[in-house]
Structures are given as C-alpha cells and as structure tokens.
Design goal:
By secondary structure, the protein is of the alpha/beta class. The protein has seven helices and eight strands. It has a single domain, classed as 3-Layer(aba) Sandwich (Rossmann fold), CATH 3.40.50.1110. The strands form two sheets. The chain has a six-stranded mixed sheet, sandwiched between helices. Strands 7-8 form a two-stranded antiparallel ribbon.
Length: 253
C-alpha cells in the first residue's frame, strides 16, 4: 500500500476546511435518509435471562438506534448482548440511548438517570465525520463522556469505544468525498484509540469487510452490518465484564 505523504498539520487542517461544504452536503443527505429510514417497530425486550447478569449501556448513533432493521433483536445492542450471553452463560440486560444524528459533544446529555451499569459501549462518529469535527475536539468530547459515565454509574464502570464504520460504503459517493471521509474516519479512530488507552477503556475497530458481503440485491444491508458489528464487540464486552478486569482510572476532574 502506498502511504500518503506526510503533510504539516496546518496544511491538513486547511484541506479539511476546504472539504467542509462537500461533506456538509453529505450530512444533509444522511440526515434526510435516516429521517425516512427503517427503524425497529414494537416494544424491545432488553434482557437475556441467566445468572449473574451484566448491565450494559449503549450510547450511539445509527447502530444503537437500530437504523435499517425491522425489530430491536436485529440491532447491535440486542445482538451483542445475545453473543455475550451465549459466550459466558451469564444473563445480560441493556439500555440503549441515542439518535442517528448524535454527536459526541452532546452524548452525555442523554445518559439515563438509572441506578448503575457495569459496562458502557460507545458507538459514535458518523455525524462527527460528516461535520469535520477536529480530532482534538473529538478526543476531548470522548474524555468528557467517559468521565460522565464513570461519575454517574461508578468509577469502576468499564467502557468500550467502538471504531467508526466505513460509512463511505453505505451509499455511492464520488471519489473526492470518499477520500475525505476515509481520512476523517482514520484520524478520529486514532484519537479514539488514544483516549481508550489513556482512560483504561478498550477500543474496538470496525471489522474488516468486503463491500460485496454487505450487499443484498445490490442494496447495502444494514442488517448484515448490525450483525457483524455485534460479533466484533462481543469479545470486548466479555473482557469488560470479567471479574478479573483491572480497576478503571478515577474520573477526570
């Protein structure tokens, strides 16, 4: 693979700023698409029975809200909890909060006023990619979110940060827009990995895929995306819920 030449930070930032109008158009298209899209219908059943149940909180955008699937059992939270329960034979309950347009800077406002959670899974990034959020701002937003989670639910609450999926494959995009999206995903994911390392969380990159695997009758299959993403997250959820897990760092002040 040919590596892109190293450019000074100010040049890179100028390039991103120049691309902002292009990606804002894609953000408008994305917002319109999700407003007209399919979401789960009916009452969710957020629990898998079993001994010593683990309480999961999911915070995010389309994966958490279930975009593109017909019922909650097909969305990432339910499928990931099911994989967790199958792997550990433990019970699992989960609570999902988020909207397709949720940005990291606003996520802590949605944290529920509930008793406690053992593990929080954060699945954000698509709106932040399209709105060209600076990587430093993204990192600060994630740090504040992790601190808010641990402050509200307990300092030992474990956190899993999910990488941003290759959203450039969700719909046909011109090469220029595609290149900017790929670069923006990469730099935000690098910052997510840094935050996870610094705060004792775990970063889970999106699983590799071939575009052909994600198509059903030539249309992108969000159902397949939810399943693959849940399978990738489940091992990290198992590790996070392990009684032998190390203590989490104290919340940031």
């Amino acid at each position: 693979m040919t590596r892109a030449p190293h450019l000074p930070a100010w040049i890179l930032q100028a390039l991103y700023l120049a691309a902002r109008p292009l990606l804002f158009i894609h953000f408008v298209i994305y917002s319109h698409t999700v407003s007209k899209g399919i979401f789960p219908d009916g009452d969710p059943a957020p629990a898998r029975p079993g001994p010593d149940p683990v309480r999961f909180l999911f915070v995010g955008d389309i994966a958490v809200s279930g975009f593109g699937v017909l019922h909650d059992g097909m969305a990432v939270p339910a499928q990931a909890a099911a994989y967790f329960a199958s792997e550990t034979t433990r019970g699992a309950s989960w609570h999902a909060v988020g909207t397709p347009s949720l940005r990291a800077v606003r996520a802590q406002r949605l944290l529920p006023q509930l008793d406690a959670f053992d593990v929080a899974v954060v699945m954000l990034g698509i709106p932040d990619v399209l709105l060209i959020t600076r990587s430093t701002d993204w990192g600060d937003d994630l740090e504040r979110l992790v601190a808010a989670i641990r402050s509200r639910y307990g300092a030992d609450t474990r956190v899993v940060l999910a990488g941003i999926p290759p959203m450039q494959d969700f719909r046909p995009i011109a090469p220029a827009g595609r290149a900017v999206i790929v670069a923006q995903i990469a730099r935000l994911n690098r910052e997510s990995e840094r935050v996870a390392s610094a705060l004792g969380a775990e970063f889970v990159p999106f699983p590799s895929w071939r575009v052909s695997e994600m198509l059903h009758e030539q249309v992108f299959s969000f159902r397949t995306m939810h399943r693959m993403w849940a399978q990738a997250l489940a091992p990290a959820m198992v590790r996070a819920a392990s009684p032998a897990r190390p203590a989490a760092p104290a919340p940031l002040v």
